[in-house]
Amino acid sequence: MKHLLLLLFLFLSSSGLSAGNKVLFEIGQQDNSAAEFALYPDNYNSFLANFGGEKSFYVGYSTADKHWPYVLPGPLDNWAGGGYWAGFHPRHFPSVFFNLDKTSAEGECYLTFFFTGAHNSNPIKIRVEINGNRFEEDLNGENSGELLTNKEDGKAKEIKIQFPASWLTTGMNKIQLGTIKGTWAIFDCIRLETPANMQLGKASSSLIRSVEAAPFEYQKENGERMQPVLVDMNQFDCSRELIFRVEGSQPVSRIIEVGESIQEILMPAAKTTGKQETLKFTIQDGKDIVYKGEIIRSRQPLHSYSDDVDLLMGTGNSRWMFKPGPSLPLSMVQIAPDNQDEIWKAGYEYTIENIMGFNHFSDWTMTGFLMQPTCGVLQLNPGREDFPDEGYRSRIDKASEKAEIGRYSVYMTDTKIKAEITSTRRAALQRYIFPAREDARILIDMFTPNEYPHNLVNAHITKVNDAEIEGYATYYNAFTGYTLEQSYTLYFVLQFSKPFESMGGWVNEGVKPVTGYIPGWNRNHEFDTPAEISQNIDEIEGKGDVGIFLNYKTAEGEEVLVRSGVSLVDMAGARNNLKQELADPFGWDFEKVVNNARSVWNEYLGRIDIETDDYLQKKKFYTNLYRALAAKATWSDVDGRFVDEDERIRQLEKPGDCIVSGEYWNTFWNNQQLFNLITPEISSQWARSAIQLYQNSGWFNTDPAGIEHTGVMVAMHPISQILGAWQSGIRDFDMHVAYDGLKKMMLTPPQKYEGGGTVGVENLVPYMEYGYIPAGKGTVSNTMEYAYDDWCLGQMASLLGKEDDFKFFDKRSDNWYNLFDAESGFIRPKDEHGKWIEPFDPYHTPGFTEGNAFNYSWFVPHNPEKLIRMVGKQRFIDRLDKAMEQSAHANFNAAGDNFSAFPINHGNETSMEVAYLFNWAGAPHLTQKWIRAIQEQYYGTTPYDAYPGDEDLGQMSSWFVMSAIGLFQMEGGCSEKPFYELASPRYPKITIRLDGKYNRGETFVIEAPNASKENKYIQSVTLNGKPINGFKISQEEVLKGGKIIIEMGKDAKVLHP
């Protein structure tokens, strides 16, 4: 992408045509009114569902009243997707596409954006790109919020951009715009003036953005290789039957549904390597040719599942676990670029076009040393994200940024350095390509911004020789708002392919340590005292802020590679991790490390094979599957050693075991059931890890990040994880030990832990005393969570033949009903005397974790039948269906955290089951309808819209994968005879590889003839040839292997009483 300094004028009034030019097109009319645009006059709350993300307008077909909104939101507009839970600062970048039959190499063009007005609350910065050439300009808003609903007159604004006509090309052209700072502006008109000889081409309802041969080939069962032609397109308004023709191949006729897609049109692969063929390619709609062009066919490598993963997808408006760096499942090292200041959800943000370096860790509350190749004036602090010149940050060429399995690479424009990173589970390899410089250096900063404030207690770094350093750093963080006291020492070894000239360093012990929780923190690393800089040193030690820099003289294009190994145990552990995982097997071969990562991931991703002609759907599915499996970390070394909650070095007994980090809150609706189905070995490791930590400290952990008792979130959902794994046939752990510990957790009051933090179930004492948690004595919604845990523990007791325990916990699992208000049909807070709290508002009455009474009124995963019966079936269906209708306007993400307007917030853990409840209420067609709506609306495919909300360690991704294959488990697979619930499989054929593990079959095939975006309703079901009535199928039958056929169609099959 080019960054060009060209003339850009901001006018306050309109101007006439330039000499020799014509108006090529206009969107809207320049009349100081937005009346002709979609959503006018005040339906901005429907912006997300209709225009969020990167929507398209096709000049010559699209119309302003259908395809272009009257308002352009900014990242500070909560109604456009922002909020504490919904996600910070979403950006939307609509595009205008236009096809040119004739262009001009001479002359100037003028692109003008007329606005009726703009909001005056914050400075507005608008970005415009014309075929990749960028402009940015401020817009000074002068209107109040009344203009958003057109209740006041606007104060007109205008942005006019002059650019050379040569930027426009024959064929498809693209103008993209978006507000990157501030708030909204209201459109009046968009006008493009060009030289008079330019001519628009014909447009249709099928926007063909690009057509190109894929960089891979498929191989059929008979050995024949086929190369796909990828047709990136948008179908407007209604489905069309299109005919795709590749020269020399049979035409392909296909129904194209409304929306975005990348159609795969297969052609025979080239026969010989090194030869290119130019082939004609056309797309026809009836008698009309909607596209005519050429593609290049040449021999390509065979496709692998890794090719379908886009690591930049969802990295905007998301949380730190969506850094685009390479990692493996259950990795300690999750090295990735960092670019944000210290703020909640910080880490990497796609829309920030600079980076401060590469941080080795991405797990919750954990920070690691950051490395940045640089040159020029020595800078010791990264500087703020909006002011990269303040520190050692560098701007990047966004077009050069690539993030794929096994590799992240980027070109830093300020320093002219290309950086590439790859990794194994506990080691990383980086490759820096420098310009010719006398002052090149590699910075290692031990104290950098993180999601939470933290302190560097002590650091010590030693030069072993001119090509190796080692060190350690001790960090402390008790400032999350939870009871966690995160204290750990990070040991590291760095080895360099080229010896450095010298080592320097800095210490700033004047940095004030954090001493308590900071509400609403938004900090950067600017300090009151200057650092002490030392040159030509062999070691350095200090606290507060510490780092080193390694000095180099480099030739143009010279490569310097860095190998790193880390450990939380000791220096020997860091060395051994580096030696065993990277140095011995791969040496300095960067590509071998990349290929190893791809090989590992191909095996995991290949456990679910989907068949679809839409490559965009493949990217969406496999990126979600990758995210689901990549999020959790490990904190044990390759030899099985780890430091426990009492800071003692421990040893895992079973080779290949590891300590698994990651929270449990409501993961029975996503992570747990996905892992039990396709990665049973990870479920086993997760269960054994939890049991091992219990045996060490005497308490189960809610998220052993850094192997501490974190006290994060609520309840004791390790019960469902361990029981769900057991019920899935994963039984290579001691269930008796697990039960004893989990029973203790559900009967023993919480307490402070000597090794730091607290242990136990937070509000267990009032829960046991009252049978519910009264308002004022804890979090009311924990009643619902604990009741589910009680049910799971009762099921576990029954399995082990502990009948008295079963009766006790099974009875207690009905405690949720103590808060059920039959009159309103809601879960409602009571006081300690059993009286309802007044006044009551299901959306705003406090007492509910990251939600409200409305959200938790659906939360009875172990007994939905009773819940529906108590609410009343029709009231239950009508209320939930209305809530889904409302929430669809915000893509099910509660924009602006407005839970009363958008009651179903799929962007957090509290509402991930609700669409499946229609199954239980006798309305499975509504489950199928709304599951598909969430799949299509909540989950996007761009960096900006793939994962709104709080994704939380692969939970949203896991939910998508399970829903897309059409399976779900309301109770987490924890019942005596677990079953899957059917919903709406997205693809015509899905093959799940079971591979005979844990006494399972080889494959389970889901055939869903006609399944598509629109064909979402189940017509009939047969399992292994036998008809299925109802929505349940036995988990045992699935795990044995076999085939289910789910006929899909457009028309709902409504069950009548």
Can you describe what's shown?
A 9-stranded antiparallel sheet has the order 28-29-30-31-41-35-34-33-39. The radius of gyration is 29 Å and the shape is globular. 19% of the residues lie in helices and 31% in strands. Strand 33 and strand 34 form a beta hairpin. Helix 7 packs across helix 8. The protein is of the alpha+beta class and 1057 residues long.
Question: So what's the overall shape?
Answer: globular
Low-confidence stretches: 1-15
The largest sheet has its strands arranged as 28-29-30-31-41-35-34-33-39
Secondary-structure class? alpha+beta
Distance between the termini: 60 Å
Mean pLDDT: 94
How many runs of DSSP E, i.e. beta strands? 58
Which percent band covers the strand fraction?
Answer: 25-35%
Helicity range: 10-25%
Total DSSP helices: 19
The major beta sheet can be summarized as:
9 strands, antiparallel
Radius of gyration using CA atoms only: 29 Å
Give the topology, please.
Elements (H helix, E strand, L loop, with lengths): L1 E2 L4 E4 L9 E8 L18 H5 L4 E3 L5 H4 L3 E2 L22 E8 L5 E11 L5 E7 L2 E7 L17 E8 L6 E11 L3 E11 L3 E2 L5 E8 L4 E2 L5 E11 L4 E7 L5 E5 L2 E10 L8 E9 L2 E10 L38 E3 L3 E2 L10 E2 L1 E3 L10 E6 L18 E2 L6 E3 L2 E6 L4 E7 L3 E8 L2 E9 L9 E11 L2 E10 L8 E11 L5 E7 L13 E2 L8 E3 L4 E4 L2 E10 L3 E10 L3 H16 L3 H16 L2 E4 L3 H16 L2 E2 L6 E3 L5 E3 L8 E2 L9 H8 L1 H18 L20 H10 L7 H11 L5 E2 L5 E2 L4 H7 L11 H18 L3 H10 L7 E2 L4 E2 L25 H4 L7 H8 L1 H16 L28 H4 L3 H14 L17 H10 L2 E2 L10 E4 L6 E5 L9 E5 L9 E7 L2 E2 L4 E3 H6 L1 E8 L8
Parallel strand pairs: 1-9, 4-6, 54-58
Antiparallel strand pairs: 2-10, 3-12, 5-12, 6-11, 6-13, 7-10, 7-12, 8-9, 8-11, 14-16, 15-16, 16-19, 17-18, 17-20, 20-21, 22-25, 23-37, 24-27, 25-26, 26-32, 28-29, 29-30, 30-31, 31-41, 32-40, 33-34, 33-39, 34-35, 35-41, 36-38, 36-40, 42-53, 43-46, 44-45, 47-48, 49-50, 51-52, 52-57, 53-54, 55-56, ...
Helix pairs in contact: 5-18, 6-7, 7-8, 8-9, 11-12, 14-15
